[in-house]
Structures are given as structure tokens and as C-alpha cells.
Amino acid sequence: MRKTVKALAFGALAVGVALSAACTKNTGDSGTNKQAEAQKFIVDYKGETVTPAPEIEGAKSGGTMTVVQEADFEHLDPSQIYVSNALNYSQLFYRTLTTYIETGKEGDPTKLVGDLATNAGETTDGGKTWKYTLRDGLKYEDGSPILSKDIAYTVSRAFGPLGAQGPQFIQAALDANYGKDGGYTGPTADKPYAPGISTPDDKTIIFSFATPHLEVPYLVAFPTTAPIPAAKDTKEKYEREFVSSGPYKRKEYVAGTKLVLEKNPNWDPKTDPLRHQYVDQWVFDMTADPKAQTDRLTAATGPDAAAVMMDNVPPNSIPTVKGNAELMKRVFTGPNQYVYYLNINTTRVTDVDVRRALNYALDRDAYIKALGGPDVADPATTIQSPVLPSYKKFDVYPSLPDGHGDVEKAKKLLEGKTVPKLTFCTSNTTANQNVAAVLVESFKRAGFEITPKFIERSAYYTTIGVKGVDCDLMSSAWGQDYPDSNSVLGVLMDGTKIVAEGNNNYSYFNESTINDKLKTLREMQDRGAAAALYGDLDEQIMKDFAPVVPLRYGRNFTIAGPNVGGTFLNQYSQFNATSSYVKS
Amino acid sequence: MSEPNPRGTEPADSAADSAAVGVLDVAASEEGAKAPKAIEGRSPGQLAWMRLRRDRTARGSIWVLGFFIVIAILAPLIEKVYGLGPTVNSPDLLDRSGLPLGYFGGIDFTTNNASNHIHILGVMPGTGWDIFMQFVYGARTSLIVAALATLLSVVIGVVIGIVAGYLGGWIDQALTWFIDYMLAFPFVLMAIAIIPIVNTYLADSSGYVPPAERMATIIVVFSLFGWMSTARLVRGQVISLREREYVDAARAAGAGRGHIMFKQILPNLWAPILVTFSLSLPATVTAEAALSFLGIGVQQPTPDWGRMINDSLSYMQTDWMYLVIPGFSIWALVLAFNLFGDATRDALDPKSSR
Amino acid sequence: MTANESPYLEVADLQVRFRTEDGLVQAVNGVSFSVERGKTLGIVGESGSGKSVTSLSIMGLHNPKSTTMKGSIKVGGKELIGLSQDQLRKLRGRDVSMIFQDPLTALHPFYTIGRQIVEAYRIHHPDASKAVAKKRAIEMLDRVGIPQPDRRFKQYPHEFSGGMRQRAMIAMSLVNDPNLLIADEPTTALDVTVQAQILDLLEDLQREFNSAVILITHDLGVVSQVADDVLVMYGGRVAEFGTVEQIMRSAQHPYTWGLLASMPSLHGDPDAELLPIKGNPPSLLNIPSGCVFHPRCAYAMLKGGPCDVEVPELLPLRFADEPGHTVACHLPERERNRTYQEDIASVGVAQ
Amino acid sequence: MLRFFVKRALLAVLTLFAISVTVFVLFFMGPADPAASMCGSKACTMAQHEQIVKSLELDKSPVTQYASYMRGVFVGREIGSDSLKIKCEAPCLGVNFRTYEPVKDIIGRTLPITFSIVLGAAVVYVLFGTALGMISAIWRGSIFDRLAAGTALTFASTQIFFLGSLILLIFVYKTGWLPRPQYISPSTDFFGWIGGMLTPWIALGLINSASYSRFSRAQMIETLGEDYIRTARAKGLGMRAVYFRHALRAAITPIVTIAGIDIGGQLGGVAITETTFSLPGMGKTALGAVVSQNLPIVMAVVLFGAVFIVLSNVIVDMLYAVIDPRVKLGSSGR
């Protein structure tokens, strides 16, 4: 999951109010965050979700909602969308086969339901073929009907270069020789559909796979299945000339500067279990860096009164925001889906005791403070993120009460062992430079000699993704692609998926017992039961093998305007657009 | 810039008693009359030095520069006396969100704090490093980069300027075109493009580039883009000096081209060279800080004022003292260089009076 | 000569001092002379003798902040010292105008000659239309002998030769028919042949406009050719004043002798030795005591004599045949005549 | 006159060609693998990497890529592999590696922003700086002169990102006297445009007017010492006419030259100022493009920058000949 939640944007120019206030003595405030507990999760296979979507209490229609963001969306072509901000806001104009419904209230479960489809998908042979039937009355913004062949066309189109930058899950599952020479590369005259896709009639589409895939309902929630009318597919220009199938359509789009959406008259609420059309117009203002966003939302003058931030408040401006009690009423915080790890290259640091010593030696207090304190991050002790349904809370390597780790235990583990000099690779940003220096100093207390190595930011993940990379320790962040640990433990800890290039398992952890366990879990029909087992597996990996040092769980800290109603931070760590309305 | 008038012969009968009576040259006073002090001949250099010493602002700027240079040289000694390194974590000096405890960003002259060590300029938010030590080592970085980069670019500029100016003909055409070509590059973009390239070549197998080599890269990049203005100025001077009689005399005496260029013409150029040197120093300090501001300058753990400013800008509201120290020190250093540059130019070329 | 008119310019006991960082420069201390209309006064002296400062004081062009002026300058009967800058401004260019040594730097490089002359004219004839001013300017250019004046009108100073530029300068200064024209070394920057043309031009124009002319130069040849009277200045004071004949034939002041002796003469003996004056002009910061020339005067009476003690007064000669020849020297008159006959008459241009 | 233009035009073309080759060489000498960073925050799989590389023709040799780029500039070309053909008519500056957006459009929207900042600030610092310099030259030694010289030096020693941030903090966010820095196209809302540009203009204006005032003061002092000023006074001109009609006219020439070259150099993008005020001009865009190895954008911005610099040199030379009659075109070899 693309890491756009810029929890640690030190580089932003923070400018603000409290010049005089700084002279007062800073005694440091106390208080800790309540830990997030796991969410419950329901998949609606029978299609019992009611349409139209229940009204949001207190909701009024009319008004203009503004979203303030630092730059244009990376992509708005449905085959290319993979970034959390686009995934969230594209729900306003793209409908997909299935989608998630969140209510934002404590304890309410997240539901995976049929959106264009009547249900989350029907399979009779254990997940090898999936059938989706479209609802009645589905229309594009120009009134033309949405047919199953449109869905088939968009999924096939995502195999080509126009889908190269988007998620590849469906493509890899459908096409046996995906990525090899014979692989399907997009619709052609003789092969309009990708392998395994068939449309018996205008209302139904069937996906058939060689091996069972129980995560298909999650995969078809990606915009890869958002319908594109083949006649209006302007290929690389589609990013800026997209056709809407949701409640809003494109009114004006100046790339890099502004996107304005207006109501789509041809969207029928009776066919939609999720979206509403309260607001008259959405304006996306793309020229405000996180600092500017914070100051505009603090002032909230004019149109900014009904605005929301796309990024988090920069860490060093948080104390100023917290100093303003009235402003705090419209601040939204909470854990996000990202976990940050210090991956230990298990092929180079083979001794598990050394890996355990590293876990003990970590100075969590200094690390969190270097990032900007508890509003930005919580110290992590597990591989899975707290927002995952399968999260299990445990701490196998507890620190001493002062939060500076347990250097004595680490030294005891290293007794009699000659610890080699370790190289620590991290991406070259100003924030990472500070953090790297703090980590090096904290491990030095236990006798580790670590030299940081800064790799150019744009090529970082590709460099450390090469098998046999010359790094002992590597920093990385990971967020689930869909709320099932198959997209977390199933990717980070699965040895069978290690290839020459493009790996995501940066600790190159390859333990046969763990690989087998992951396979069985992947093929379990009941995802709820699987969730509990994933939690125990997480603890077992950390206790027996400690392939990573979990550093922190990401947290959101962002502001909405006073006139914004019906919104909350959803699984994409963005303000939930489909339920928002303008109060005054 | 006005062309400093060549030191050559003054027109014999210039209307000395014209309206704006210039300062009468003491050397010309009547020897018979009761002249106040004996007249000895002084070289232009001594004259310039005498004017420089008399100039109050120049003295002030020399003091400030001296202060910074001494700090830069004695940095390790100061560290021993002060007892604390520049990159010593002290998270306990920070509150929960990483801001320094106490007044004015953690300034504390007593030792009763968590790190039981004095912090005369406070500590950096986030890492708790001591700002005074960062300031001391930061001076070293700024001065080294500025001095070496300017020296290198002036040397390149002078050599190319002399060769182009003296040889003339197609060499001059080619070099002048090369100067225009180099001037057409936007410096900031080129710096950002070149630095990673040079780093990949410098990096060892594991891609690690030691701090000293990173600084060397920046110095090389600055001198690659800094020499053109000096070259152009020197070329102009050499063209005018080339016609002078003593150059013809040297050629007549059988002197080779190299000798004429570097033994005859170069000594006459030290005035403009010194002026460009002292004026481009502040520009280099600013440019180095700007590179750090964009995050491509000197990397951790080498302390650097530019990077400190970049970090401190984001703490401006919550811990504004952190911004004052690096911001003020760069400003003071650049101001001192500017004043010194002006003073040297006025001392060497009194015609452009203050 | 129309002797009965009162002199157009009268300078009495003029003192000019400049405050500079290195002290008080006494450029002119106690100079008196007068010039009638139609007459040319030649002011001679080495650089630093105060001749240019005097002329600029008449024009009131000194920087008021750092200059103090005492004594009196009367032009056409009106006292200039004490006038406000604005009142002085009305005189400049209309009653009194000036031409300078190097016309290339004295003319504005970026404006055409015509435009600069038109500007000079319209300052003092604000109601004159552009056409009238242009016609007047072209007329002046023609008058000073510049060929095709209407084409030259549109050209820039750098497109003129040295002589042509000086003619244009003269045209500009005479466009308002001033009564007094001050020429500060007008021919020094020109070669000899052009020099003669310019001097003839000045004489014709003087006769035509009947204006008084002050010609400042360090070249006795020029003075002898053009001037009616001659004022010899040294060290900010008047050494000697008299008609051209008196100065050239019977100079009284040792400094004037020195000048005459160091000038080669056309009809004199070509290989006769020239006698240059030894030493340098005095520093105006600390003026020598007594007679300012005494350090360089071969005949100075030093031991107990008045030369290095008392400042000599400017006194008329007693035995001269015509009046008006004054000199400031302690040497007795008779001895001066004798020394002149023995040492100077046979040397240099005095022959 | 014609000979002058032909010679300069030829030289300019040679310079631009050399620069375009240098940018290409620099790109391919570095660790250039733009495709690697285009798969979200994850490492690209082999298949994805292949497709992106082919769609951007990065698999071809640098020489062929350069040839097709140049052909595109003059004739237009088709970019991409068989399954995705992007038509790009002349003058085609290539497409954004990530979003396939034609670079022409990117330049189209970032150029006006940089122009507004640079030209607006230039008006401020050339006029204000020169006037300040002239006045302190005329009142040389007065308190005004010393005060002006002092403040000029103070501002000349500050850096734009430091002063800019201070101005932002105090005047925009704390007191709100200045509107937020943003670009509003002057055609739609002229006063909005001025409001949005005030902060960068003031910051850049203050810093550069410092150096301009020091420079014009020195020029004016030198001009006031010239003989033709004394002639002007001797003609009876009033002081104001002497200063403005004569002294200023002569002192302005070197200022025009310096200003011409300064502005020419900045039109290619003022990356640091744009970053300080988060205005998405050519400099800031190119900065991001270099970091994410987006070659076509870098190439376009550098070439535009070079064109502006070369053009400004030619214009300055022509202006020089117009202002200073002594200079004839073609003979003014620097």
C-alpha cells in the first residue's frame, strides 16, 4: 500500500503562531494514547446489504467541500490507482464490483459488500471460479448502461502498460504465465478478454482461476474493476478525461492545480449500498504542502471552513495545534495501516540471538521522540498493524520501564559472540537521516557498530528488493493492501515468494515451517477463523526467529473544517468522502 | 562594476586643481619644505593594506571572520573542553513530542539536567543533540566548503581568463563560447543531477560514501559552476593589459608565452582576483546552505548550518530559538565576508570612493 | 579699446578653501583682477596654481557643502558670492558660460550635439519653440565653422573629430550670447594645427559678440597669441599682472621669468639651453610661509630677507612706461629689471 | 546588423545543442532507472518493470533515445510500445514518465508561475533598488545614505529561504497582513494574482534590491564625477534636471545590462524561492523531476532555461546598442 500518509514530513516549512509562547518553560505533558483494538470484519456473500445507503443523521445537502492536498493525484486512471488518497476519493466517481462499508463508530464491523455486483461474489468450487451479477439500472454519467463487457474490458486493459503502475493481484492470479513471454498484455482484436474472464450475458461476469483464490472478493474491490466504456477509452489521456460511474462527475480538471467534481444526474442511489450525494461540488486544491494545509485549516476562513486535509499535520507543528483547544475539537487522530520495521537480513545475520539482542537494544523512547512524539507514532512490538482484523497484541522483547530498551539483556545474549560491523540501509530523506543517527546511537549502547548507508529515495525499494543486496539492516514500511493478513504476513514472511528482483520480503526470511503454515491459512475458507491463527503465527515468528525489529505503528493527526459533517478517518487514513456533507 | 583604473602612468598634466580636489598624494609634497615625515616609496599592496587597516568596518569584519575561523580550526579542542560531542543523543532532555524542556530551547548553564551537562545554546528538538557543538562544527563545514570551492573556482577562472585574454584568436572565441555555454546551465538543477552521479562513482561496493568525500563532491560541483564570472573579468583585464608596453618589452626580450602570461600579466591581476575572491565567498556560503535546504547538501552526521536551518524552519513556531542560532550565524558570516569584500575592493581601487 | 566702460567682471580678494579628509586646502587666497567686455584675459600658471578653481568660483560650480568662499565676484555689477544656487543658476549659460579642456568627456555621450545645444538655448529661452531653438543651434554650428550643420546636428559627440567637438562646445556656450566666456585650457587636448584654428575662432567670436573672455592655460605661446592682458598665478595667489607686451617683454616676477625661460622660441637660437624651474608646485595643504614661490625662487633673499617671512603685496611698478603692470615680489624693482636683462632676455621665448 | 543576428543565432543553436546532449549524458551516467520507482512504494515486479521500460522506450540505447527526442521536437513522434502508442505532435517535448502527460502542458502551466515571480520581483528590486542607490549617491554621506547602505548590506547577506520563511511566519500566518502565496492567473483575477504574488515579490525584492542599490550607488557616484555633468551645471540646468536627465541617463546603462542578465538567468526557474513559498513553478517542478528521474521534464526545463539565458544576452546586447550610441552591434564582443 503506497505510503502517502506522510506521518514524518519534517521537510515541510512549518510556520505558525507561538513566537512569544516559546519563552514559557516546557515541562512536557504526560498522558498516553489508548491502544487500538482489532476491528471485526464481515464479508456479505449473500448480498443482504440494503440499498440505497442508510441516511447519515444530521446530513444536509448542498454546499462545496474542499480537499487541500500537496500535489496532484499520482493517477486517476482506474488501472493505475494504487495510492491510498486516490483509492479513497476515486470512490466518488468510480464504482467497483465490491467495496468496503465503514461507519466510523466504535465497535461497528467493516463490511465487504457487492457494489456494482449484487453480492461479494459466489463460488461453488472452493474459490477456483467466481461469479458476479450486476445490479439493475447501472448507468455511466452520459446515461449509457454499464454492462459486464465493460468490466471485462477494464480488467483486461490493466494487463497492459496502462496498468503497469497499478496493483497486479488479479492479473497475477488470472494469467498462468503472467510476467513471462506468453503473458497477456492487454485487449487485442482476437483476444478482447484476458484469460479466465467470460461474460455469458450483459448482467454476469465470471472469473476462473487455475488454483483456488479466496481473496478474490478483496481483489475486485480495487478500481481495476471500475468500468471504462471501450469507445471512450482515450488511453493515456484517460487520466484526465475519465468517465464517471459514481455520484459525481468531472466538471473541470487543470492537471497539477485543481479538480472540480459536480453532481452526476445519471447516478441512481437505489443501486448504490455505500455512496451519498449530499454535497453539490467537490474542489480538490493541489498547491498546499502539509504546513500550508495545517495553517489554512487552522484559520478555516472562507471556503476552507468546509475543507479537509489530505496529509497529516507535520510533527513539529502538532504542539501548536494541541495548544489550541477549540481547534482540537476538529482534529482527527488514530492509528493508520502502516507499520515501520528494521528488517534484519536473515541470510547475513544468521544468529537468532544477535537478532533478539537488536530487539532488546532498541531505544523506543528516543526513536519516537526523534519522529515527533506519540501523536505521530506508537512504539511497535508486532509485525501486524493494530488495524488488521488478525492483530494480536504481544511484546516478546519487553523494554525496561524507562522505555530505553533492555541493554543488559541484549549484552547477555551477545556474550562470547563477536558481533561484526553491520551496514544499515535507509532511503535518503532529511527525516531518515535524523532517525538513522538516533538508531545507530541507541544500538551502540549494546556494543553494535552500525554504519548508516543512504540510498537515493526514488530507487530505494528497488535496490533493497534485489536478492543478495549488500545490506545487513534495512528500514521499510508496509501497509495492508486489503484487510486480510494474507496481504501482510503472507507477503512479508513467505519465503516461497523470494525471487531475484522486486522482493517485498526484505528480511529474506525463508523458514519452511512458516511457509507451510502461511499456505494453509491462505486456503482457509473462513477468513474470520484464519484471522485468529494469523495473530498466533505473528507471535511465533517474532519469538522463534525475530527476523525484524518492529519500530513503530503509524498514527494520523489531521484537521477538518468546522462545517464538515458525517466524516471519519477510514481504512485509507483519509476522510471518508462517501458519507461527508456540509453543515452550515 | 566599474573597471578599476590600471595602475599605469597618470596623465602628466591632469587638471589637478579641478573642482573635486582629490586627496593629494603625500609622496608629492615638497622635500625642501618642512615636510611632516620622511617620504618612502610604498608598493600598492602596502598602500592598500594601510587603507584597509584604517577602515573601521573592515576591522570589524576581520574580527568576525577571525572568530569564525578560530572556532572552525579549534573545533576538536572546544569539544574536549566542552566535554560533549555534536551527535550525542539525549532524548531525556526532550518532552514527549521531542521538544526541548526548559527555557529558550533547552539552554541550560547548570549541569542539573537529565544529561547532567551544560548546553549553552540549547539542544536540537527530536534528537537532543547539543546546538553549540553543532554550531562549532557547522562553522568548520561552511568555511571549508566556501573557502575551497571559491579558491578552486577562482584558480580555474584566472587560468582560463588569462589564456583566453592573452592568446586571443580562435582560442578566445572557443573559450568565450564555452563560458556562455556553462553560464546557460541552471546551477541548482545541475547540482542536484550531478551530485548523485558523482556519489555513485565515489561509493564503495555497498554504496556508502564517507562524509569527507560527499563534501568533496559539493566543493567540486561549486567550482565547476563558479569560475565563469572570474574568467570573464580576468579576460577583460588581460585584453587591456596585453597592449601595455612592458608586455611588448618582455616579448621583445624573448620571453615565452607562459612566462609572459603567468610572470608578467598575472602579478598585475591580483587586485581584481582578490576582489572577486572576497565577493564570491559569501555567495558560496549562501549556495551551500541552499543545497542543504533542498536536502542534497552535506549529509548527516556532518554538522551543517544550512541543514540546521532547514530542520529549524519546521520548528519555527514551537522552538524558534533553534532557528535563530544557525540563521544568525550564517547571516553574520556572509555579512562579514561582504564587508571585507567591499573594504578590499575600496582599498585596492580608491577611485570608486565609498 | 573702449576704456570708459566699467569692467564686466571684477574679482576682489577672492579666497576659496575646501574641507577634505586630509585637512583644509587653500586653493585660492587673495586674488583680484578684472576683465572688460571685448577684452581677453589670459590666466597662466602651473597645475595647482588655483586658475581653474578661480574660474569655477565665478561660475559658482563648487560643491557648497565643502567649500567656503570669501571676497567678491561682480559680474555686470551684480555680486555673485552669497547668491543662492537658484539665482546663480540663471546666470550660468546666459551671462557667463564656460568651455572645458577635453570636449569628448565634457559632452554628454548619449545625446546628440544638436539636442545638447537646443537644451542650452531653451534653458534661458523657455518660451522658444523647438523649431526656433533648432534653427538657432544650426546657425551657431555654422557660425563656429562646422560644415553641413543640419546633418551634424543629429550626430553624437563620438562621431566628431577633436577640433569639431571643441567648436560644438563653443557653439553651445555662445548660443545665449553670454557677456563673459571662460575657456579652461580649451586647446590643451588638441594638436597644434587645430589649436590655432580654435584660437582664431575665439577671437572672431569675441569681436562679433563683444564678450569678455578669460583664457586659462599653462602655455605662454597661446597667451601671447590671443590675450590682451595676462594674469600669472602661483600657489593660489597672483604673482604678476600686466598687458601681454609688459609680461612678454618686461616680466618682473622670477616665476614669470622661469616660465619664459622654459619655453622654446621659433625665432630664437634653436640649441640654446632651456632653464626649467626646479622643484614642484606647492602643496596647498601647507602653504610655504612668506612668498609662496620662495622655495623655488633662484633669487630669493632667505637669510634674514623678507621672502620666506612676509607675503609680498601686489604693487604697481613705479618706473614702467605704461600703468597697470603689477607684481608681488620683494626684490627691488631696479634689481629685477637688471636681472631680467642679463639672465632672461636672451633665453627662451623672451628673445 | 544582420551579421550580428546570424552569428548570435548560430552560437545560440550550438549552445542549446550542447546543453541538450549534456543533460542526456548526465541522465544516463547516473543511476538512471526511472521505471524502478514507479510501482507505488513497493519494488516493481519484473513484468511491471519490463512494461514501463518498453512503454517509455527506455530500453533503447541513449543515442537512439536522443535522436527520437530531437525528431520529436521538430517533427513530432509516437512514444511507446505496440500496445500503447502515444501521439505527440511537434514540438513534442516527450511525456511525463509517470502520468504520460505531455511535457508541453506541464511547461504550459508552470512557466506563467515562474514568470510571475521573476518579472514581478524584478520590477520591485530594479526600480526600488536603483532609486535607493541613486538617492543615496546624491545625498552621499548623509544619514539617509549610511542608513540605506546599512540596510542594503543586511538584506544582501540574508538568504531567500530564511527571509522568505520569516515573512511567511510574521506577515502571512501570524498577522495575516499579506495574503497566502499562491498563483491565480492574472486573466481571471488580476488582484488575486497580485495578492498571491506579494510575498515572493517582497522577499526577492528586498534581497536583490540590496545588491542593486549598492551597485547603482557606485555607478551614480562615478557618473556624477564625469565632466559632462559639470557642463550640464555650467549650462545653468537645475539640480533635478542634472540628476535625472543627465546623470541617470548615463548611469542606467550598466544597470540595464546586469538586470537583463539577472532576469534571463532566473526565468528558467527559481527553485529555492518556489520551494520556500510552495509555488509549483518550473524550478520546483524540475527539482521534483530530477529526484524522481523524470528525464523529459528535466530536459524541457533546462532547455527553456538555456533559451531564456541566451535570449537575454542577445536582448541585452541590442539594448546596449540602443542606449549607448557609441556601441555598434556586432563589434561589441564581450
Describe the structure.
The complex is a heterotetramer of chains A (about 575), B (about 350), C (about 350) and D (about 325). Chain A has helices at about 85-90, 150-155, 170-175, 215-220, 290-300, 320, 325-330, 350-360, 365-370, 405-415, 430-445, 460-465, 490, 510-520, 525-545; strands spanning about 40-45, 65-70, 100, 110-115, 130-135, 195-200, 205-210, 250-255, 260-265, 280-285, 305-310, 330-345, 375-380, 420-425, 450-455, 475-480, 550-560, 565, 580. Chain A is α/β, with parallel strands linked by helices and about 575 residues long. In chain A, the strands form 5 sheets. Chain A has a 6-stranded mixed sheet with strand order 13-17-12-16-14-15. A 5-stranded mixed sheet of chain A has the order 8-9-10-2-11, with helices on one face. A 3-stranded mixed sheet of chain A has the order 1-4-3, with no helix packed on it. With about 350 residues, chain B is mostly helical. In chain B, about 60% of the residues lie in helices and about 0% in strands. Chain B has 12 helices and no strands. Chain B has helices spanning about 45-55, 55-75, 75-80, 130-165, 170-185, 185-200, 210-240, 245-250, 255-265, 270-295, 305-315, 320-350. In chain B, α2 (about 55-75) packs across α4, α2 crosses α12 and α7 runs antiparallel to α10 (about 270-295). The longest helix of chain B is centred in the middle third of the chain and has 37 residues, at about 130-165. Mean pLDDT of chain B is about 75; it is low at about 1-35. With about 350 residues, chain C is of the alpha/beta class. Chain C has helices at about 50-60, 85-90, 105, 115-125, 130-145, 150-155, 160-175, 190-210, 220-225, 245-250, 255-260, 335-345, and strands at about 10-20, 25-35, 40-45, 65-75, 80, 95-100, 180-185, 210-215, 230-235, 235-245, 315, 325. In chain C, α8 links the parallel β7 and β8 (about 210-215). In chain C, α4 (about 115-125) packs across α5, α5 (about 130-145) packs across α7 (about 160-175) and α7 (about 160-175) packs parallel to α8. The relative contact order of chain C is 0.13. The model of chain C has no long low-confidence stretch (mean pLDDT about 85). Chain D is mainly alpha-helical and about 325 residues long. The radius of gyration of chain D is 24 Å and the shape is globular. The mean pLDDT of chain D is about 85. Chains in contact: A-B, A-D, B-C, B-D, C-D.
